Prior knowledge:
alpha/beta, Rossmann fold, 7-stranded parallel sheet, 6-stranded parallel sheet, 37% helix
Amino acid sequence: MKVALVYDRVNKWGGAERDLLTLHELFPDAPLYTSVYSPKDAPWAKVFPSVIPSFLQKIPLTKTNHEFLGAFTPIAFESFDFSAFDLVISVTSEAAKGIITKPGTVHICYCLTPTRYLWSAHDFYFRFPPSKFKTFPFFRGISRPLVSYLRNWDKIASARPDLMIAISSVVKKRIEKYYGRESEVIYPPVDIEKFKGKRNESDFYLLVGRLTPYKRVDLAVRAFNKLGLPLTIIGKGSEESRLKKMAKGNVKFIGELTDRELSHYYSKARALIFPQEEDFGKVVVEAHAAGTPVVAYKVGGAQDTILPGVNGVFFEKQSVVSLTEAIKKFEKMSFNRGKIVKSAERFSKDVFKKRLLKLINNING
């Protein structure tokens, strides 16, 4: 069976990129198609036999300024020819699902979420537009009619895959709401073995993620300023300077770490703080694999991974008061490390591979 993989753009490293590497383990001969490819920013992609970018690759600066390509990415993905393949798997939160395949080719879409800036987080993106849109007001001026065009195309494109897979229950609901179609849920693969180890709990709380407005790290900083408890923040991003100015002495910032270094912090943390809404949230599962409970905002993918009283606690509102109360509640609780680690096992790479292969075999009959 000849297989091809498709991804929105190959110019960064994150959770979806880890998913692609797991797919590469399943299909090592599959080429990777994408809109633009930056080898410098995506060295992880060198494992693929070939990375095939679209015609957008020839346009100057597109590898790092993808915000300006919204109107052209639909055409880019529609321009690829997949007639030589039996199966195409698109991994996407944007336009990659819009590829066109012929009747002899099966297209499975692994949907990270319906495109955020078009649907579920549309208002947020207009309140906090990319900094480049602020620099070039012309692009912000045309963004609303462009969104209307892209919404229409996105709805049409969502009907093209033969099967759509959602990464979580909340994404499944979004697919039904915005695209009007059913989907299977297969949770993203997490390399839980990498984060298992001897639990050596310390007194600090931990937050892991990019320091951007959407992650609501500011909420955690303000809550821990109020509580006076130690908080260690791992990550970098556009909000770093502002957050450091906001934080008191009990809040410590550490830059980006390797998985091995991160595993050390997971194993020592009293709990992971998860104040944002995520489509899934791999850091929650990573913490659980290390035996560490999580204090999480009760929305999105956290509702699939958190078992209250078993591996963590929820806070109901995205506010300092609600988070503070949840931490006070957590301070009075105790958890069974074995049960926490066990709760992570259903999100392992092996489970992901088995479920996906079973689904593919069912399609092929």
